[in-house]
Design brief:
The protein has 241 residues and is α+β, with helices and mostly antiparallel strands. The chain contains six helices and seven strands; from the N terminus they run H-H-E-H-E-E-H-E-E-H-E-E-H. The protein has a five-stranded mixed beta sheet. It has a two-stranded antiparallel ribbon with strand order 1-3. Bound molecules: adenosine-5'-triphosphate and magnesium ion (MG).
Length: 241
C-alpha cells in the first residue's frame, strides 16, 4: 500500500514517539539492576584488602557500570537523539508545507486556519525534518484541543532582539490547567484517554527546540485556548548579511 505524503509524515511523528517510548522503557528497566551492580561492587571494594589482586577487576566492574549508568541516564533524559542535519531553514516554508499536507486531515478539515507569516523572516540554522516534527506536533495538539471546531492561528516574526525568531501556535480549544503548564512538556504526561496519546509529543518538541538552542513555552486560559511559543536563534549567515 502506498502511503500519502501526509500519512508518511504523520507516521514519522508516531515512529519518533514509539522509539522514544521504547528507549525510555528499556532505560527504566536497566536502571534498577545497574544500581544494584554499582552498590555490590562498592561493598566488594570495601571488603577486599588494599593489596588484593582482585581489586583491579572489581574497580573495572565499577567503572564500566558507571559508564552504563551514564548511557542509561542519557536515554532517560530523552528517549532518542538523532544527529541533526543542520542547514539554514526557512520556518515559514516548513509551516506552509505542514499546513498543506495536514489541512484535509479529519482534525483540521473544519477549522479556520489563520496564518501571519512574516515575509521578511530570517532563516534559522536547523534540521528541517526535526523542526517539521515540532510544527506537526503543535498543530495536531491544537487541533485535538478544539475537537474539530475553532481557530488555529500560526504566527512568525523576528523577535525585538533581532537574534531570534518567534513562532506562535494558538488555538481556541479546551485550554490547559495552570498547574499543568510546565508538566505538559514532561515525557508521558497526557490527559488523553489510554491508547489515544503517548504524552511524548511535547517532550519531543522540547528536546528538538533545545537541541536548536531555542525555547518553548505554553500559555493558556482554561476553556478559551492555548498558545505555544517557540524561539529559535537566527542563523549566523543571516546576521552577517
Ligand atoms: N494545544 C493544547 N491545548 C490543550 N492542551 C494541550 C495542548 N497541547 C498539549 N496539551 C496538553 O498537554 C498534554 C501533553 O501533550 P503531548 O503532545 O506531549 O502528548 P499527547 O498529545 O497527550 O499525546 P501524543 O502527542 O502522543 O498524541 C496533552 O495530553 C494535553 O493535556
Ligand atoms: Mg500531542
Amino acid at each position: 500500500m502506498k502511503l500519502s505524503k501526509r500519512d508518511e509524515k504523520l507516521l514519522a511523528v508516531e515512529r519518533l514517539k514509539a522509539t522514544g517510548r521504547l528507549a525510555s522503557e528499556i532505560a527504566h528497566e536497566l536502571n534498577t539492576p545497574l544500581g544494584g551492580i554499582l552498590m555490590y561492587s562498592h561493598i566488594l571494594l570495601e571488603e577486599v584488602p588494599e593489596n588484593d589482586s582482585r581489586r583491579e577487576n572489581i574497580l573495572k566492574i565499577n567503572k564500566l557500570a558507571h559508564r552504563c549508568k551514564i548511557i542509561v541516564q542519557a536515554l532517560l533524559n530523552f528517549g532518542h537523539r538523532e544527529i541533526p542535519q543542520t542547514r539554514p531553514v526557512q520556518i515559514n516554508r516548513i509551516l506552509r508545507n505542514v499546513i498543506g499536507f495536514l489541512e484535509d486531515h479529519i482534525l483540521l478539515r473544519n477549522l479556520s486556519i489563520e496564518t501571519y507569516l512574516d515575509p521578511a523572516l530570517p532563516r534559522i540554522s536547523g534540521d528541517e525534518n526535526l523542526l517539521e516534527q515540532v510544527c506537526i506536533n503543535l498543530i495536531i495538539n491544537a487541533a485535538q484541543s478544539m475537537e474539530g471546531i475553532g481557530t488555529l492561528t500560526l504566527r512568525t516574526e523576528l523577535a525585538p532582539d533581532t537574534k531570534r525568531i518567534r513562532i506562535e501556535c494558538s488555538d481556541t480549544g479546551c485550554g490547559i490547567d495552570d498547574n499543568h503548564l510546565d508538566t505538559v512538556f514532561d515525557p508521558f504526561f497526557t490527559t488523553k484517554e489510554k491508547g489515544k496519546g503517548t504524552g511524548l509529543g511535547l517532550s519531543i518538541c522540547h528536546g528538538i527546540v533545545e537541541m536548536h538552542g531555542g525555547t518553548i513555552t505554553a500559555e493558556s486560559v482554561k476553556t478559551k485556548g492555548s498558545t505555544f511559543t517557540v524561539f529559535l536563534p537566527v542563523a549566523h549567515e543571516e546576521i552577517d548579511d
